[in-house]
Write a structure and sequence with these properties.
about 500 residues; 7-stranded mixed sheet; about 40% helix; Aspartate Aminotransferase, domain 2; 4-stranded antiparallel sheet; dopa decarboxylase, N-terminal domain; Aspartate Aminotransferase, domain 1; alpha/beta; single chain; binds pyridoxal-5'-phosphate; 11 strands
Length: about 500
């Protein structure tokens, strides 16, 4: 392709001519396929300093048209190499994920079709295929057919929607009457979640007018699971103080350690107290595709709502979050507002207009990529891949357990391992302040050195106030050799920093 202007830019055609689009799209697909084939050649983290990229892009937009070949060439030199490579097999930070081939193909067609399934009328297939895919996923997760739902952008939005519904279902009628000057609500509404629950729960409280103070964090046990007695006591105490409890959020697969709250016992408490139960299984929910691994999710079928993110561990390109609920009417009453221009006038009968179930009006046709990938992998293919990731993480945990200079800091119910370097010589002294500080610093140095290798990318957290390294397997390209490489690098860096000879 030449870098001269494309013909239609000269002829004045309003959009790319179909044939020029075809040629350019083929070129783009080549770039995509080359990237996916060669992503391992990149360092996972691009070697760039903050602020070094912006000056490489023109400060002002171009007045004159530019040819697609030129734009693509710049993409290859300026964009692709400076991305953090989530698609890299060595990406094991946060919750590793993959934008899989079939998911990408679905995204490409989504873009071309330009759908906005805000109303049934504005996208019949976008609306109805969403219903199909939501129900496929419900079945795949082993949930009863009383659950219905929708696809949102992120778990943060799904949880926001769920808690807005809980606020309505709790009888406070906030959607209509707001919160200000409502003396009858007492000192305020309350949501309960464990100390380990994701920050999105707190943000939802901030956004919904409950404030951060509206979230009461319940302490966890030594395995980072919510203490149910403490939950029950907190609800009773708050009620006695005149607060208005509305919801409990249980997490199956917390962000730091992937611990699982005792969902059944929490469901009992929530039911007794008449509170909405929302289960956050954004990461780990994918494991429920495996019928013999559903143990950790027991009780989630009693939830009023739950969230699982296909864009975390179901190989779906960002974004796609599945919000399921047994109380869709409560969600609708939290968000439904139909101005005249959105009324469908052609008497098509009762339809679902998904915009009534979310804060935004416009929405993406996310069902298409999920339809592509569920069909292409099949549930068996997805199960096989998730099982593989569980095995790789279990294998890594075994290596950590077998090495006296390392210690595992949490159980591994899924594909994420929490651990740290703690040399055998310090084993009995980890409570001493100076040892704790030393271990924190040294582990931070280790992870930094390992990530600088470019071969792998790991992230960290704090568990029981200890600096904790996390390794999360969720990338389709990750093989045993990548996990082994991470382990070699970790041990190598620990020895080097400890001033010990390698070997
Ligand atoms: N819930 C849990 C348990 C998570 O781990 C995360 C992110 O990692 C979220 C919610 C937020 O996910 P999202 O980025 O889709 O909002």
């Amino acid at each position: 392709m030449s870098t001269d202007l494309d013909p239609e830019q000269v002829s004045g055609a309003l959009d790319m001519e179909p044939e020029a689009f075809r040629a350019a799209a083929h070129a783009v697909v080549d770039v995509m396929a080359d990237y996916l084939a060669g992503v391992e050649a990149y360092p996972v983290l691009p070697p760039v300093e903050p602020g070094s990229l912006r000056p490489r892009f023109p400060a002002a937009p171009p007045d004159a048209p530019e040819a697609i070949a030129l734009i693509l060439a710049d993409y290859r030199t300026l964009v692709e190499p400076n991305a953090t490579h989530w698609q890299h097999p060595g990406f094991m930070a946060y919750f590793a994920t993959t934008a899989s081939g079939p998911g990408i193909l679905g995204e490409m067609l989504t873009a071309a079709l330009g759908q906005n399934p805000m109303l049934w009328r504005t996208s019949p297939v976008g609306t109805e295929l969403e219903g199909v895919v939501v129900d496929w996923l419900r079945q795949a997760l082993g949930l009863p057919d009383g659950f219905d739902g929708l696809l949102t952008d992120t778990a943060s939005t799904s949880t926001l929607i769920a808690l807005a519904a809980a606020r309505e279902a709790g009888g406070a009628d906030v959607a209509a009457r707001g919160l200000s000057g409502r003396g009858e609500l007492g000192p305020g509404l309350r949501v309960y979640a464990s100390a380990e629950a994701h920050s999105s729960v707190e943000r939802a409280c901030m956004t919904l007018g409950l404030g951060r103070i509206g979230l009461r964090r319940i302490p966890t046990d030594e395995q980072y699971r919510m203490q149910v007695d403490a939950l029950e006591a907190a609800i009773a105490e708050d009620r006695a103080a005149g607060l208005w409890p509305i919801a409990v959020v249980a997490t199956a697969g917390t962000t730091s350690s992937t611990s699982v709250d005792p969902v059944s016992a929490i469901a009992e408490v929530a039911e007794r107290a008449g509170l909405w139960l929302h289960v956050d299984a954004a990461y780990a929910g994918a494991v429920a595709l495996l019928p013999d691994r559903r143990g950790p999710f027991a009780g989630w079928e009693r939830a009023d709502s739950l969230v699982v993110n296909p864009h975390k561990w179901l190989y779906t390109p960002l974004d796609a979050s599945l919000l399921l609920s047994r109380r869709m009417e409560a969600i609708r009453s939290a968000f439904s507002l139909v101005p005249e221009y959105l009324r469908t006038l052609d008497r098509i009968g009762p339809v679902r207009d998904y915009n009534e179930y979310q804060p935004q009006l416009g929405r993406r046709f996310r069902a298409l990529k999920l339809w592509f990938l569920i069909r292409w992998f099949g549930l068996d293919g997805l199960r096989r891949r998730i099982s593989r990731h569980l095995e790789l993480a279990a294998g890594f945990a075994e290596m950590v357990d077998a090495d006296p200079d390392w210690e595992r800091l949490a159980p591994v119910p899924f594909s994420t391992v929490c651990f740290r370097w703690r040399p055998a010589r310090l084993a009995g002294r980890t409570d001493e302040l100076s040892v704790r500080a030393f271990l924190d610093d040294r582990n931070a140095e280790i992870i930094d050195a390992v990530n600088r290798s470019g071969d792998v990318f790991l992230s960290h957290t704090r568990l029981a106030d200890r600096f904790t390294i996390r390794l999360s397997v969720g990338n389709l390209r990750t093989e045993a050799r990548h996990v082994d490489r991470a382990w070699d690098l970790l041990r190598q860096e620990a020895r080097r920093l400890d001033g010990r000879p390698d070997g």
